[in-house]
Amino acid sequence: MCMAEGKGDVSFAKHTTVEEVLSKYPGKYGTTSDYEYLCKDGTRKDIGKHEECFLGFNAAHAVVTREGNKDIDNIVTILTTMSSMYGPSQTNWTKFQLFNSTKYGGANLLFKDSTTELVSISKDNRTYQGFLGDDYVKDVQALKSCDDASSSCDDASSTKQPTSVSTKTTPYAVIVLLVAMVAVMSL
Predict the structure, then answer these.
(1) Rounded to an integer, what distance in angstroms lies between the CA atom of residue 183 and that of residue 187?
(2) According to a count of CB atoms within 10 Å of the terminal CB, is the N or C end of the chain lower?
(3) Phi/psi of residue 37, each to 5°?
(4) What CA–CA distance (Å, rounded) separates 9 from 43?
(5) Max CA-CA distance within the chain?
(6) Per-residue pLDDT tens for 67-125?
(7) Residue 67, number of CB atoms within 10 A of its CB
(8) Does pTM top 0.85 for this prediction?
């Protein structure tokens, strides 16, 4: 971690990053008390208090299918059922565990091991714009305007201003639509 090595004072990272790195490299980068969140109101909060203090939201991870896939509803049903059956409530180590790769000698094999649940995207939001939200899409367009040769980011009047942070979030869920997982149901 750059901050622990003295190469920076601020890092933009997911709320899970500090704890993941510290548990992977015990003692190498300090403890959670060595880090804190910077809040929009200028205050600071301890690691773990991300629901009270954050600078913005990022869209949850998603797995998508091709446009017009007629099997989406079946895929969603299979995956959300698997999440219920083999997710965090599955504590029997002799049975399949969807979000725990250590049993299989790896990490993040099918999904990130920090995944807590697979949830369905509403039919109205099954486009990238619907999923990400208007504010997120506008913010990306504003950032991309700096790469546009016809605009200058030094001239504030010619640069699109980012929108306010979107309140549309799913920070603890992974949204999925994945055909290959059907084979796991036979286990």
Answers:
(1) 8
(2) C
(3) -85, 145
(4) 16
(5) 62
(6) 888 998 899 999 999 999 998 888 887 888 898 898 889 998 888 888 888 988 888 88
(7) 7
(8) no
**Phi/psi of residue 119, each to 5°?**
-130, 155
Rg value, the chain, Cα: 20
Residues 6+ apart with CB under 8 A from 67: none
Q: Confirm if 72 and 62 have CB atoms less than 8 A apart.
A: no
CA 161 to chain CA centroid, nearest Å: 24
3-state SS string over 24-67?
HCCCCCCCHHHCEEECCCCCEEECCCCCCCCCCCCCCCECCCCC
Q: Which residues have a Cβ under 8 Å from the Cβ of 9 and sit 6 or more positions away?
A: 3
Joined tokens for residue 82: 């698997």
Measured on CA atoms in the order 160, 15, 24, 176, is the torsion positive or negative? negative
